[in-house]
Every structure is written in C-alpha cells, then in structure tokens.
Amino acid sequence: MYSKEHKLYLKSIKRNKIFIIISQIFLLIFLLTLWEVASNLGWINSFIYSSPSKVLDTIIGLHQDGNLYIHIFTTVYETLLSFGLGTLIGILIAIILWWNKTLAKIIDPFLTVINSLPKVALGPIIIIWMGANVKSIIFMALLISVIITVMNVYQAFINTDPIKIKLLKSFKANKFQILTKVVFPTNYSNIISMLKINISMSLIGIIMGELLVSKQGIGYLIMYGSQIFNLSLVMSGVILLALVATVMYYAVYAIEKLVIKN
Amino acid sequence: MKSNLLEIRNLKKIYHDKDGEILAIKDISFKIKEGEFIAIVGPSGCGKSTILSILSDLENKSDGEIIISKSNLKIGYMLQNDALFDNRTILKNTLIGLEINKNLNDEKEEKVLDLLNTYGLSEFIDKYPRNLSGGMRQRVALIRTLAVEPDILLLDEPFSALDYQTRLAVSDDVYKIIKKEKKTAIIVTHDIEEAISMADRVIVLSERPAVIKNIYSIDLPNKSTPIENRKIKEFDEYYNLIWKDLDIHV
C-alpha cells in the first residue's frame, strides 16, 4: 500500500496530464472556430483563406467521387516504397563504407555536398532524366532518404563499442563476423530510431516529387487546387497530408516500441 | 618439473603516429610454465597491456620472439571491461567465442552449461546481463573465455571497473575458478596487492620504455586463496619490495 503522500503525488501527476490533453483539444477547437468565424464574418477573404466548413465539404466531395482514397493510397504507397528502398540502400551503403574506411574518407566530401544541396533543385533534371512519371517521384524521395540514412547509420557503425570489437578479435573473428555479431546487433536500436526520421524524409521527398510531376496523390491535389485557384482543395490537401504524416510517424513509433521491447 | 608453455624473448614494441614514434616496450623476456599464475605490475602507461595484446595477436610486435611449446596454443583473453552483449542472454554471451570459431556443438554447449552450473549461474542462463551484479557479470566473462578451452588465460586488469569490496570478492572467485580448471594465467594489474595475493610470480616493469625491473617468486607459507593470502605476514614484505621497485612519486 502506498502512503497518503504518494497517492496525492500520483493524483497530481494524473491531474496535470488530463489538464494538458483538455487544453490541447480546446486550443484546436478554438483555432478552428476562429478560422470559421473569421471567414464567415468577412474578417478574412474566405476565397483565399478558405474555412473549416469548406475544407470539410471538399473532403466529403472527394469521398463521394471516390477520388479521396486513390490520392491517399498513391501517396502512402509511394512513401512506403521509397522508405523501404531508401532504408535498405542506405544501410547497404553504410555497411560498404564501414567495411572500407579509405573509401569512406574518399567519398566523405561528396556526401556532405550532396547532403547539404536542397534536393528540390534537382527536380527539373530528374524529370528530364527519368521522365514525367512516378519514377521521378520515387527517385526524388530516395535522394533525400538514402543520403541521410547512410550518414546516420555509418556514424553509428563507427561508434560501435571498441571493447566489444576487441573481444571478438581476441576470438579471431573475421570482419564479416564483427559486422554481424557486434556492429549490426549493437546498433539495432539506433537503426530502428532512424526509421522514424526516414519515414518523414520519404514523405517530404514524395510530396516534392508530386508537386513537380504527378497525376494523382496528395501533392497532386495541392498543386491542382492552386492551379485552378481552389484554395479549399489546397487546404484539404494540406490537412490530409498532416493526418497521413502523423499516422505514419506513429505507426513506425509503435513498431519501434514493439521491436525494442523484445 | 613442469614444462615451459610459453617463452617471450627480447620483446620490443614501437607505437607509431603522426607526431612520431614511441618506444613502449624496450626489452622484455620471461617464461611461463604450465599451470603457473603470473602477474605483471608496472606504472600506468608502461605497456603492460600491450604484452597481452601482442600475445593474443591483436597487435604486432616490433621485434623479439614468442616461443610456444605446442602448436595451436589457444589463448583466452579477459578484458578490462566485461563487454557482455546486452541483447544476448547469459548463455548466448558465453557461447559467442565458440560461435565465432564455428566450434559450437551440443557437446561444447553442454560443457559451458556445466561451467555455468558449477559457478552458480544456472538460474540466469536465460536472463540478460542487465539482471546481473558486477561480480556475476565478471564471472560470466570468465566463463565466456573458458568456453573456448584456452591453454592460457590473459587477464587485462579484469577487476579495475569494480569497487574495492567487490574487487576483493571477485578476484577470489576468479582465482578459484582458474585454479579449479587448472589453467595457466597471466594477469596484468596496477594493483600490487592483487598481484601478490593471486600470483606465483610477480614481474615488475619499469616506466616506459618498459624493461623488467625484478621478478619475485611469491613464497607465502600456507598459501591459499587471495583474500586469505593478504593476511599472511610475508605479504607485506613483498608489498614493500615491489612498492620500492615501482618508485611511485606523486
């Protein structure tokens, strides 16, 4: 049994938590109401700034057309594809660099330059090279996620506990065994937490690609909406994107929790 | 008379880096007999750990000879830190050496399980290192080293990460296991008491570049375990001799 003081302490923690959640809900409702009222009363131009009710109508309209799910599915599918590919390719390159330190030193400045270059600037080139199709979109996302994966995973690999490597060497382990028995397993949690960054990076790349060239997807919705000056469609796209991004982030987060527990 | 297991002749080691070269070990020669327990003491940074690294092939020697009496002499290395893998169970941790040597079979695993049983770790085989105390972790590290059935054990300041009380208990523990398994061992330490209490002979090294200052045969009457040995009158005499050799100034 806990003491009275401890019960009070637990209660105060709980109360604080509830207060935070209620405040968050009220803040959201307040902002949405303010937006709605402001556009209804003409404080802001509802044609340019749209309003929550118009956004809702637009989304319902998309749902009735059946287009809503095609766009969401396209973006999610492309993101997951480039996320998977990017993670795989990135880890593979990181392994190669870990294996050959001289090669790592040689390409280090190139990696730094590519990493600091805003990838969107490569958009026009990518479209010409790959064609105005989904390949360009995936390539754009890969460019972003692969480089970051390589840098993060390589950094984790070279910071592997040297004592554990020494231990394996004392058992006459070869390089492949050092990789599979120490370097990879001890960085397992680093790699998993990198996935969280990677899913966001992939989504950024996919949306960038979709804004440049696409026939469907959330990025396409936003681009199309701005071209026909339908700002409610643009806002709907942005809100859908926020929802998709949040769901995917928490999905990876849940997987991380599940994997690290075991 | 037991035969020599290992002999080191005129060992020399130079370290290289961008700023130049450092002569770490100038000239060291000694022999070790089968079943013997040798301690190497010396001021910190004198290159005593380097000797173990060279013996276990982790570093190259610059000059000298290492003569081993039997071909395929197997060496077990116990590091300063227990280096247990958090993501492996205790059993898996102790089997890692066999795994790497591709020597893992049911018979060997049975032997390791016997060792774990004998040394009071049977209920922990499926637990993870985080569930174990510092002393137990050290025992697991020793069993991991014994699992590959080495002919000689090299212990590189194995207790330096432990607090004083635990260190006494663990060194007693490790000593008993090594004696029971009839292993030859070389321990490197900066702790004079630890060296005298455990070893048959103590080799005292000079400061860098290291040479051998003195070798003492430790003849304690009624010699038993390290903790008991510390209580013997002659213990202090050896302590004073080695202390003078090390010539420690603050």
Structure overview:
The complex is a heterodimer of chains A (262) and B (250). With 262 residues, chain A is mostly helical. Chain A has helices at residues 4-40, 46-49, 52-65, 67-99, 101-116, 123-130, 134-158, 162-170, 175-186, 188-212, 218-227, 231-261. Chain A has two domains: 4-44; 50-261, MetI-like (MetI-like fold), CATH 1.10.3720.10. Chain A is built from twelve helices and no strands. The mean pLDDT of chain A is 92. Chain B is α/β, with parallel strands linked by helices. Chain B has a domain at 1-73 and 153-162 and 187-250: Rossmann fold (3-Layer(aba) Sandwich). Chain B has helices at residues 48-55, 90-94, 96-100, 106-118, 134-147, 164-180, 192-198, 226-229, 233-246; strands spanning 4-17, 20-33, 37-41, 63-68, 75-78, 152-156, 184-189, 201-205, 210-217. A nine-stranded mixed β-sheet of chain B has the order 4-1-2-9-8-3-7-6-5, sandwiched between helices. Classes of the chains: A mainly alpha (262), B alpha/beta (250). The interface between A and B is medium-sized, with 17 and 19 residues.
Question: What is the topological layout?
Answer:
The complex is a heterodimer of chains A (262) and B (250).
Chain A: H1 4-40, H2 46-49, H3 52-65, H4 67-99, H5 101-116, H6 123-130, H7 134-158, H8 162-170, H9 175-186, H10 188-212, H11 218-227, H12 231-261
Helix pairs in contact in A: 3-12, 4-5, 4-7, 4-10, 4-11, 6-7, 7-10, 8-9, 10-11, 10-12, 11-12
Chain B: E1 4-17, E2 20-33, E3 37-41, H1 48-55, E4 63-68, E5 75-78, H2 90-94, H3 96-100, H4 106-118, H5 134-147, E6 152-156, H6 164-180, E7 184-189, H7 192-198, E8 201-205, E9 210-217, H8 226-229, H9 233-246
Parallel strand pairs in B: 2-9, 3-7, 3-8, 5-6, 6-7
Antiparallel strand pairs in B: 1-2, 1-4, 8-9
Helix pairs in contact in B: 4-5, 5-6, 7-9
